[in-house]
């Protein structure tokens, strides 16, 4: 991901090139829709078709961003945004229940495919002659870029797919806080509940059996919560090996403890951020098992 504040010299020409291409694609596509030079139904006026196209782009952006935001939300502690972003918290908790994530993905995929095909019908440009467009169009340009929909594809991908995905990846909580996200989520759940994609469950089960895949239950083990709330230890037979801090540990700031015989109970490394005085790295202490 390119950080705008840290963009390099080679990024700026690409920014300009991409912006010009987006402007060119937007102008050509909107002109073709308004003048009814696309494969869309001519019964609908051009201005109405343009408004419909904008609505399609908006709904496609909701579907694309919603998926990324729900995935990124799992990396954050729900308690940190429970009160500041209540809508995002409730939506995240609902999506985490049972098989709601899989159901949402099925319904969302149906929406995305339908919207993309519908947008293709709205934006596929048909020009009968070189002078029958906003500018003179050679035959090769019309065949490659207009009639195939490649030109309109730039507009759809940048504004309705990539942009919402990037925003949702960087700001998942704020993205899910928008009021439209909840109706979008339940629309996907409703579409899946109709049973259109229900055979997917059977095919997925057969495919997993065919390749010997087993369901992972690591996410239900509760190890993450235990590591945060309890003293982590390793039991070897009837003895207990006390924990040993590493440079990435974020445990307590207690001093190094020794038993009566002078052996270390807990060993901190020199890189530990909690020690005020650095430890001489040339001296290494062994960790013994207390009797």
For the secondary structure, the number of strands is 2
Oligomer: single chain
Q: Categorize the overall geometry.
A: globular
Helix tally equals 10
Global Rg:
28 Å
Q: List segments where confidence is low: pLDDT < 50 over at least 5 consecutive residues.
A: 231-254, 266-276
Strand order of the largest sheet: 1-2
> Distance between termini?
53 Å
**What does the largest sheet look like?**
2 strands, antiparallel
Helicity range of the residues? Answer: 40-55%
Please give a structural write-up.
This protein is mostly helical. The longest helix is centred in the first third of the chain and has 28 residues, at 46-73. Helix 2 packs antiparallel against helix 4 and helix 2 runs parallel beside helix 6 (150-170). The protein has a two-stranded antiparallel sheet with strand order 1-2. The model is unreliable at 231-254 and 266-276 (pLDDT under 50). It contains ten helices and two strands, in the order ααααααααααββ. The chain has helices at 11-34, 46-73, 86-95, 100-123, 139-146, 150-170, 172-176, 181-193, 199-210, 223-229; strands at 234-236, 239-241. Strand 1 and strand 2 form a beta hairpin.
